[in-house]
Design brief:
single chain, alpha+beta, Restriction Endonuclease, 3 domains, 20 helices
Length: 481
Amino acid sequence: MRFSEIFGIGLEQPQLDFVDIEPERDTPLFIDPFAISLKGDAWSEICHQHITHFFQTALDHIRAGRDLQARQMLNGLSEPNETCLGMSQGAPAGRGVGGRQAFDLYESLAASQAAQNGLLEELAECDLFIPGIGSDKISDITTNIIRRPLIEYTQQQCALHGIRLNGDFPSGRFWDMDSGAWRQEYVRLPVVAQQRLILVPKYTVRRKMALDSQEFYSHHILNFIQEDEFSRQSPLVRILASGERRPPTKKALKERFPFSKDFVARFSEQHPKVLEGYKQFYAEIEGARGPLKHQDFDDEFDEAVFARALAAALPTIPPGNAAADRYHTFIMGTLEFIFWPNLIYPKKEHEVHEGRKRIDLTYTNAAQDGFFWRAHTAHNIASRLIMVECKNYSKDPANPEVDQLSGRFGANRGQLGMLLYRTVDDYDRLCARCRDTAQDGRGYMIALGDAQLIEFLGLISDGQRAAIDARLQTAFNHLID
């Protein structure tokens, strides 16, 4: 059973912000520090700071010959089983760095020219240059370092979904930047069959690491050598019967320049622009910044069928206070499905003004293109958080509902939100109220009723997900025209 089923959340993976793990087995996904480094949301930036601080401190000790300090740092690593991610067979057993493997990691780093000469700069590059370090170990090292932010995320998600946390449990070691040392404390966590669990944002995981030594070697290094050998007309250049000259085959290059991580390191030191281009390539191509698609979590997932099921379920929720929680939960999951990965880290009943006011939902704006990105970059609207109010009313939303949401806006939190409601007799009048609020400088809110949500879900089921962006832009344009 998955985490969501065990705790009766009532939502499926496309509606959840975290990886819906199965505690009895590992899910073959990895936390990628390179992908984390490319993101601009506050949580990812905190994690990146921890990862960078730990790894640079370890490298500084190694380069300065402080072997004892370096060993102590690396011995603090353990084999994390709480996230249930990785490649273990059967029950999660951890394939990370612990015990003898921590010593081997120290030996590999200490003996590595890439570590000594400054070529190795970040943890993700260990897959390129350090023998014996691959996706599973890098992911588990990263988990150790950012365990504290992951625990805080887990606690927030459990609060969001009404999961009660009982008892205090050892957190496991996490890296503390202030003290420059490993720390451990007692924390509250979800537990299944005496197993502590830590949830991981699906925004941070990948099926494979972005930086991969074999891929770098096969598709970037060998391509460079191929062109170089041909331009120099080396003996490896092929001469056809017609006299035409062709670049050497990759098979011939692999025999002449066999793969090893030491070779990759030596080549990268001699040709740093090739390494730079490889990293830049993965920083810019679609999907490289980390977020997976809904289908990547389940090969059999049918987005069109799922969208139609949500569209059919919405009208079955009756308006009124009795079904308010049901409607609230449905909206939270539906917005996750529709706007992933642009809106992430939902928080329910987010307190503002020292608890005197509450916002039904807030999402972190992680968009790197599209409407939510343009709102900030093109229109200069504060939108770090997107505020959402859910009104399960049978009557039209009126000025009090509009004013309630506008009162939640602020320069630090953001001035962009969505007002979710069931139905309205005079849609133009509701839009006019939202426009008045925007024109008065009190924030920008997009009104989305059942009709609009069903339209969005219909676009997804028809394979036209991209058209949702245009619908949002049109609604926004009415606010500023």
